[in-house]
UniProtKB/TrEMBL annotation:
InterPro entries reported in the protein's UniProt record: Acyl_CoA_acyltransferase, GCN5-like_dom, GNAT_dom
Segments forming a coiled coil: none
Gene Ontology molecular function terms on file: acyltransferase activity, transferring groups other than amino-acyl groups
Full protein name: N-acetyltransferase domain-containing protein
Pfam families: FR47 (PF08445)
Gene3D superfamilies to which the protein is assigned, alphabetical: 3.40.630.30
Source species of the chain: Brevundimonas viscosa
Residue ranges of domain N-acetyltransferase in the record: 100-229
SUPFAM superfamilies according to UniProt: Acyl-CoA N-acyltransferases (Nat)
Length: 229
């Protein structure tokens, strides 16, 4: 399948470029190492390649597909969830925004990051997801209460992801401030920032627009069930 744009098939684009070291599979189909991410993609819609994609569905967490166009599901695949998402891109940030004290997060914070993501469910987050890119967070009395970071990295782009705030600390502007900081770092590297939001979440999309993100296209996010235990 020829890509009209690298973000039309962000998973395939990332795993065949800057994140190829995390790819599992071959030229027919690839997935992220399951300890890092849920996402996978076939090279194209051919039966041979969709069958190869099915063979990569080895994690009990299943497998996630993100596609802008029509892509057939592997034969026998069981869909756990499917939703339309708006893919948004920022080439610059809007002026303004509040300042929030934050710090870099690393291996010492891995357990706290996983716990916060498990509580708030900003998206698939596993034991090594924090290693996909730079993450920053807000701590209150040593407790991690908000974070944001990077996920997929096709050539020229980096995805803003893992944005979440503990329920007890919402309404303080942490999410917007952290997203702004992560996006600014991406732009300063000469890349463009992108993200995905559920198409039904109008308030979330509106928040991203205030930062400078604009809708690019609609993608379908499909989560397939993993193998039975």
């Amino acid at each position: 399948m020829n890509l009209a744009h690298p973000l039309d098939r962000p998973v395939w684009s990332a795993l065949t470029s800057r994140q190829s070291g995390l790819a599992r599979g071959d030229v027919r189909a690839l997935r992220f190492d399951p300890d890092y991410a849920l996402f996978a993609a076939a090279a194209d819609a051919s039966p041979e390649n969709t069958a190869a994609l099915a063979a990569l569905n080895v994690s009990p967490n299943g497998m996630g597909l993100v596609e802008a166009g029509e892509m057939p599901l592997p034969a026998g695949a069981v869909v756990r969830a499917q939703a339309a998402c708006v893919q948004m891109v920022a080439a610059s940030l809007t002026p303004g925004g509040r300042d929030v004290a934050f710090e870099a997060l690393g291996e010492a914070d891995a357990a706290d990051m996983l716990a916060l993501a498990t509580l708030t469910v900003p998206g698939p987050f596993f034991g090594k997801t924090h290693r996909l890119g730079d993450f920053i967070g807000v701590k209150v009395d040593g407790r991690l209460v908000a974070m944001a970071g990077e996920r997929m990295k096709p050539d020229g782009f980096t995805e803003v992801s893992g944005v979440c705030t503990h329920p007890d600390f919402r309404g303080r502007g942490y999410a917007g401030a952290l997203m702004r900081a992560v996006t600014q770092r991406i732009l300063e590297r000469g890349e463009r920032a992108f993200l995905h939001a559920y198409a039904s979440h109008a308030a979330t999309i509106a928040l991203y627009e205030t930062l400078g993100f604009r809708g690019r296209t609609t993608v379908t996010y499909t989560v397939l069930e993993g193998p039975a235990a």
